[in-house]
UniProtKB/TrEMBL annotation:
<protein>
    <submittedName>
        <fullName>CNTP2 protein</fullName>
    </submittedName>
</protein>
<dbReference type="Pfam" id="PF02210">
    <property type="entry name" value="Laminin_G_2"/>
</dbReference>
<dbReference type="InterPro" id="IPR001791">
    <property type="entry name" value="Laminin_G"/>
</dbReference>
<dbReference type="InterPro" id="IPR050372">
    <property type="entry name" value="Neurexin-related_CASP"/>
</dbReference>
<dbReference type="InterPro" id="IPR013320">
    <property type="entry name" value="ConA-like_dom_sf"/>
</dbReference>
<feature type="domain" description="Laminin G">
    <location>
        <begin position="1"/>
        <end position="164"/>
    </location>
</feature>
Amino acid sequence: MKTLKDVISLKFKTSESEGVIFHGEGQQGDYITLELKKAKLVLNLNLGINQLGSIFGHTSVTTGSLLDDHHWHSVIIERHGRNINLTLDRHMQHFRTNGEFDYLDLDYEITFGGMPFSGKPSSNSRKNFKGCMETINYNGNNITDLAKRKKLEPSNVGNLSFSCVEPHTVPVFFNATSYLEVPGRPSQDLFSVSFLFRTWNPTGLLLFSNFADDLGNVEIDINEGKVSIHINVTQMKKNRIDISS
């Protein structure tokens, strides 16, 4: 395929921070790869190199963050020659590719959800996508529908299921005034707590609990982006323990 214009759109959701969403390449040095890296969306594009290899066409653009939140995210890539619009969740970024070529020349298949092992160092260091995609559209072709009706050749590598498994975890959102209160466990010698959290705020109280019989309290908070644990024990000489990470 040799195209001057491309429109690629899809939605994805995942709890993984790394993974190739789609990939295509050609023998002229052309390639296009959309992938997640450190939970950010990265588009790598090269419209080819000249025979001397002196035209540096590699272009890489990063957008978004925290995209491994298992929520649906929408991506649209619109290309006309070297002009690209990359839209993530309605936020559009416009850029021009490096080099001097306008056509994307892909000799091999386009893969969604991963990339075939090519022997290149870049191919075996990349993880395949793990999660869900829907409404995949490539230059007017509804890829999701074609794959489901097995109209693609070759179609599937590995196990694909046309459903999306929801995670068992249930997140809780807190605003500046809300908190969750649970009953304590009296006559227990052990205090144990574990949780995952995500926030944009550098400061905030994560957990607080009084010990029974006025024996002290424990507090976990974020202070200037660091997690701190404060344990106050009234019966000890050194009655305050502070741990920061």
